[in-house]
Amino acid sequence: MASKSLKNLTAPLSGNNPVIVQILGICSALAVTVQLKPAIVMGLSVMVVTAFANLVMSMLRKGVPSRIRIIVQLVVIATLVILVDQVLKAFVYDVSKQLSVYVGLIITNCIVMGRVEAFALQNKPWDSFLDGIGNGAGYGLILVIVAFFRELLGSGSLFGYPVFEKIGLYELGYSNCGLMLFPPMALILVGCIIWIHRTINTNLQEK
Amino acid sequence: METLNLFIRSIFIDNMVFAFFFGMCSYIAVSKSVKTALGLGLAVTFVQTMTVPLNYLLNEYVLSPGALAAWLPFEGLEEVDLSFLSFIVFIAVIAAFVQLVEMVVEKFSPTLYNQLGIFLPLIAVNCAIMGGSLFMQQMVGAGEIRNVGESVVYGLGSGLGWWLAIVMMAAIRERLAYSHIPAALKGPGIAFIITGLMGIAFMIFSGIQL
User: Fold this and answer.
1) Nearest 5 degrees, angle CA B146-CA B152-CA B153?
2) ipTM value of the model?
3) Residue B210 forms part of a structural domain
4) What is the pLDDT of residues B44-88, one digit of tens each?
5) Number of domains forming the structure of chain B
6) Hey, which of A34, A51, A133, B81 has its CA 20 to 30 A from A17?
7) How many Å lie between the alpha carbon of A34 and the closest alpha carbon of chain B?
């Protein structure tokens, strides 16, 4: 793989992360971070949709007049999301129930639209596909970090496996932090991730 | 009384921003000045109040299982279930409606049009709007919204809740310009943490029944 293509894949993981640097797609998705499993499924779904939306729109980019491109993008994205939703319902029904309306909201996830507008319309299909995978992965990464802390500190388990109970932490007088399970804590955690990330990458700090 | 309850609940308890994180992208990006926030909030509330009832009618008469049989004179429609199409139908209604609002605002209030700039067409992909319609569909299933009137109330309430959140946030951020924040927290970092704290404050409304 050429180094330029590789860069499309890795840049969104940290330096150009869609969530904490571009501030896109926070909408909706944080609600699925109470547990790790739905967070991973959501991350994978967004990755698939972003990658294929980028691929399709990049292939269509010369044939679609720019005046109607938004509606074409919405149709392509909505079709992909319906496919993902039907697959989730068929194979992992319980997770699909947990995700509820948030799968449908991938359509309005700014990452998908944003990457199609900013990248796929100017680049070749293969590069766009990699860019989609990278951005989906960067998004999934943040979801997994947030979900890890919320599930571990909020309910003392990981993937439903009771970690804290097994190592006997409760007998020492520890109890779960119920606040972690409430929506506001997801926002505060993302705020802290941004804080740490920008302390390391000082070039991203606002003047 | 139940309608009033639904209204209060959709503004304060099930607040779009604090309870469901809907519309966070434009919420973080546009909340830098109170004036723009007021304009965008108004536009979102208006679009929400119109699209939720429109989608309610579509859901009721076209999409839900067997809905077509109620008014079309063909055989065998009782078993038609078009609900898998709801994403694409809802987003099409929203996109078309936003286009209409954009044209009207451009014609009648060029000042507001210039202020909102790119964010007006972006309402189409604002998760608060799509989320409102999807939640409406769920609440119809749960029997909490039973007619068009209640869907208007829900649309208005959830739009107002979003408006309230973004204006409050903009007011706080205008003051933040004068405070000393660690360099790495400036901008989005502190905005997220403040939203989280506001969300905790809004949790006191949960459980209120009228």
Assistant:
1) 85
2) 0.82
3) no
4) 888 899 899 999 998 888 888 777 777 777 777 777 778 788 888
5) 1
6) A34
7) 13
